[in-house]
Amino acid sequence: MRRPGVFIGLFIVLLGAVLLAINLGYVSSRIWGFFWPALLVLMGAWILLAPKASDKPLAVEHATYSVGEASEGEISFHYGAGVLHIADSTTVGELAGGTFTGGVLADQSMRGSTAVLSLKFPSDRIIGGPWGSRGKAIEWVVGINPQLPLTLALHTGANEQILDLSRTQVKNLLLETGASHSMITLPSAAGFTRATIKSGVADVNITVPEGVAAAIDVHAGLSGIKVNSERFPKTGDHYQSMDYLTAVNKVEIHVESGLGSVSIQ
User: What is the pLDDT of residues 171-193, one digit of tens each?
Assistant: First the structure.
């Protein structure tokens, strides 16, 4: 079982965050008087709730959402712990669809010519960690329309997200994530795409497809930064392809990272 390892990992993250906050002067050392009692409460709740939750079978839902008469789309994801896969879908007339282990709450509407879809993990379902129950992992595998201009907004927690947007027409991407691992492949032929990444204690890996120019700004706290400076020469704190201004397909990347690593290739 992974429960002990996950709890230890959470403890290390919390401890490191407290130490960092003290060293940076955001909080005083008196916080230790609250930290240890809070940790004991968390440990007790974990011990009491996790075994019960892990015995409950996870729902596996298959759902599709029609594009209707829309000429563009906006899709938002609200997802906590688990694994999130997003790639292009080949199903005609579909805005998005896939398999949602753990369930999904969907809200779909039209705003003018834009199809708006919100996908949320059910907050009333207590699960014994990101591995789910009875050996079944919490995982969403979602396909999105490859022809429609799209805006994607992801609000995620302690999870893993794998985004292959290479064959999509995503024009705007926003990722706000906490303690996570992210692998993102940006569109290869969408014209102009803007990607904004805001991460906490995270490992972020971004791939810019060959033939796509990029302009990159990275603002990192204690994160390690690795950018392919051969493809994207550096000037000050800015990285940019030599042909960015004239390129047919280009991406504008903004990254704000706290603690972790950022790689852009």
Answer: 999 999 887 889 999 999 999 99
